[in-house]
Design goal:
Blueprint lengths: L1 H27 L43 H13 L3 H6 L8 H12 L1 E8 L3 E2 L4 E12 L3 E14 L2 E5 L14 E5 L7 E3 L13 H9 L12 E6 L6 E6 L7 E3 L4 H10 L6 E7 L5 E6 L5 H4 L9 H9 L8 E4 L2 E3 L5 E3 L7 E4 H6 L3 H11 L2 H10 L15 E2 L6 H8 L6 E2 L1 H13 L1 E2 L18 E2 L2 H17 L12 E7 L8 E8 L2 E7 L5 H14 L2
Parallel strand pairs: 7-10
Antiparallel strand pairs: 1-3, 2-3, 3-4, 4-5, 6-8, 8-9, 11-12, 11-23, 13-16, 14-15, 17-18, 19-20, 21-22, 22-23
């Protein structure tokens, strides 16, 4: 009996020892990363009550262990690669709960930035929790005119559905942008541009060019609502003032539309007309046709648009036709007091002056009406004179400097009309601009249309230039030099080196004659006109002298 009792006691003790060992092994197999997490005593575990059931003689199964797919580094790298390629669909797939306008927000940002290129430099990833991370990065954008735009941002990531995703907000685009905000490009305006001189200087006060400048603006050579001067990138957030994050301002702000006007020439022309009521001066660069000055006291744009009989200044055109038809400056001609057109009217010199036999040069210098009428009747015809006038811009259409034509002349119907046209009366009419271009053609050897703007691309379509035959150009220079040396402009206050032609023209209305003087000094050609001023020598030459001596 004693042996049986001892055996039973041993069996019981062994059973107790075996049960304790099994319980210790199960406890040791619970992993701290397992999905199952024991709740504090007296409270249910997360996700509801958790139980562990054991079958006799068996050990419990371990809790399953799950880890996120990929890594935050891989997700960030894929996101940045898609970004620099503007692949917004691929970016969207990597974002947790992206907004509906995700792609539109990126496109609007890029439309405002207008970046020529984008580079992203990624920093070291920082773990902010078991399932969260953050990675800093720098954007480098090449901006037109402003160079490289650099700014720092950060990309936040988190685990969602066992996958590392980007947690996106607008601050990823730029750290200053809040939800509902955006990047906006603005272009400040300098205001409507006004015409300025070639060098960008404002024109002199009371220069007599206002109507001319207004006409240029009316022709649409400059914007009337202002012109953009640089640009700014601003972040606009709801309920907050806009914040500028990048700006570009050019070193030289445009001050106006550059004309060809020279400040000193314009000032000299304006001051030369001080005290003169009805007059104009137009000056051009002979070698280019650029308008250097226009001082207009005639009202409106008369210096460019209103035509007057040019009087004896038109003898320059008639002389060109004669030189082109066999005469030379030294050819002998008759300068009688009166020339009787056969079977027609007589032509008189000014005050019936009789100079007898002279050279063509002297007849031009003395402004002999009878010489030019007779030579035109005997050697030229209406078509020849009209063609020659056309070579000097008469009847040539075009909106050069705002004038539809610089001068006009109808084909003479008879010899009386031909004779009158030969010395700038009859049907011949010209603007002061037109006659300045005639003088410029003599100096340069080529007729050129007027150019009012420094930027040739803004000139519009201009008439073709017309070269003069070399003997004609040289001959005309000889004739015009004689006018100031021993002709109708000799003994005046004109500076040395000036060549020109005086003109006294009947106005056709019975009023006092108009006064003209055209000429050139070096590359500067000009026309002075005084409405009802009297003689060219008495009224126009003194103004020209004041103008040229002020340069």
């Amino acid at each position: 009996m004693r042996n049986r009792a001892l055996l039973a006691l041993v069996v019981v003790a062994a059973a107790i020892f075996a049960f304790g060992v099994v319980g210790l092994i199960v406890s040791g197999r619970q992993s701290p990363d397992a999905d199952f997490v024991a709740a504090p005593r007296g409270t249910p575990a997360p996700g509801g009550p958790q139980t562990l059931q054991l079958r006799p003689g068996s050990s419990p199964e371990p809790s399953p262990v799950s880890s996120p797919e990929g890594s935050p580094d891989e997700t960030a790298a894929a996101y940045f690669q898609a970004w620099v390629k503007s692949d917004y669909d691929a970016m969207r797939e990597l974002v947790e709960d992206p907004p509906d306008d995700f792609a539109d927000e990126h496109r609007e940002f890029e439309d405002a930035a207008l970046s020529k290129s984008l580079r992203i430099t990624v920093g070291d990833l920082v773990r902010t929790g078991d399932d969260t991370a953050e990675i800093p990065f720098t954007q480098e954008r090449d901006e037109q005119d402003a160079g490289t735009w650099r700014f720092d941002s950060s990309l936040r990531l988190a685990v969602s559905d066992l996958t590392w995703k980007v947690v996106w907000t607008p601050s990823v685009l730029h750290p200053e942008i809040q939800p509902g905000g955006s990047l906006v490009r603005t272009e400040p305006e300098a205001g409507p541009l006004r015409p300025v001189t070639r060098t960008g200087r404002e024109l002199p006060q009371n220069s007599g060019a206002d109507a001319y400048l207004d006409n240029l603006m009316n022709q649409g050579v400059a914007p009337t609502t202002g012109v953009a001067v640089g640009w700014e990138l601003e972040v606009e957030n709801p309920g907050m003032p806009a914040k500028t994050v990048l700006s570009y301002k050019p070193e030289k702000r445009p001050v106006g539309v550059r004309t060809t006007i020279d400040y000193a020439v314009q000032a000299a022309a304006a001051r030369a007309l001080d005290g003169v009521q009805r007059a104009a001066i137009v000056a051009v660069r002979a070698s280019t046709g650029e308008i250097l000055a226009v001082a207009d006291r005639l009202g409106g744009r008369a210096a460019f648009e209103r035509k007057y009989p040019p009087g004896s200044t038109f003898k320059t055109v008639t002389a060109a036709a004669l030189l082109n038809n066999g005469l030379s400056p030294d050819s002998t001609v008759d300068c009688a007091a009166v020339y009787q057109i056969p079977f027609n009217r007589p032509i008189h010199n000014y005050k019936d002056e009789n100079h007898g036999t002279v050279t063509l040069r002297q007849a031009f210098a003395l402004s002999c009406n009878t010489s030019f009428a007779r030579l035109t009747i005997e050697r030229l015809n209406g078509d020849t004179l009209v063609d020659q006038a056309r070579a000097f811009g008469f009847g040539v259409s075009g909106e050069s400097a705002g004038a539809s034509t610089c001068g006009s002349m109808r084909r003479p119907e008879n010899q009386d009309a031909l004779a009158e046209d030969s010395f700038g009366q009859g049907t011949v009419e010209a603007t002061p601009l037109c006659m300045a271009l005639v003088a410029a053609a003599v100096e340069s050897g080529e007729w050129r249309p007027a150019r009012p703007l420094a930027d040739e691309a803004s000139q519009g379509e201009l008439p073709q230039s017309v070269p003069l035959p070399s003997n004609v150009a040289e001959g005309l220079r000889s004739l015009m030099s004689a006018v100031t040396i021993d002709g109708t402009a000799a003994g005046s206050d004109l500076p040395q080196g000036v060549a020109g032609k005086t003109g006294t023209a009947e106005d056709g209305q019975g009023g006092q004659d108009h006064a003209w003087f055209i000429g050139y000094q070096g590359d500067l050609a000009f026309a002075v006109f005084v409405e009802h001023g009297g003689t060219g020598r008495g009224a126009a030459v003194p103004i020209a002298a004041r103008f040229l001596k002020a340069l």
